[in-house]
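re the bet — no i am not wrong, look at it urself. input seq straight from the record:
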Amino acid sequence: MTEPAASLTASTALTTPAPAPVVAGSATARGRRARLALRAVQVLLALFYAVASALPKLIAHPTAVESFDRIGWGSTGMYVIGALELAGAVALLIPVLQSVAATALGALMVGAFIVQLTVFDGQNAATPLILIVPLALIAWARRGQNARLWGLARLRA
């Protein structure tokens, strides 16, 4: 009696598809909302770096000129930093460059923090520190893109 039951169970197992894994609808919706929120932060940071930070340097706004003269870097340093910030802002919007851009801008903010402390006596030193937080989040969340970037670099070599 055990043999027919065993063959029935075996044949049923072969014809019945395995149950699909259960994925909570709220988990996928939550993940989608998190991705959208991260993308919104990236766009806002890109706008900030392009418009509020790079543009005054690139058009030689008097306050930017004064600040860079006080640092001792002059107009060359001002244009270089402005170009780096603009490049970082654009790269934050390019999927394969997002993690690298956030890391580079974070490093730039570490330098800005040091300059704010040493040259400007800590005035506005909190701004670069505040910006490092979302940049670090973007760099970590988009770190999977680094493998794609390295793959593209290997194809070129």
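see?? The CA atoms of residues 113 and 127 lie 8 Å apart. told u. also The chain has seven helices and no strands. so pay up
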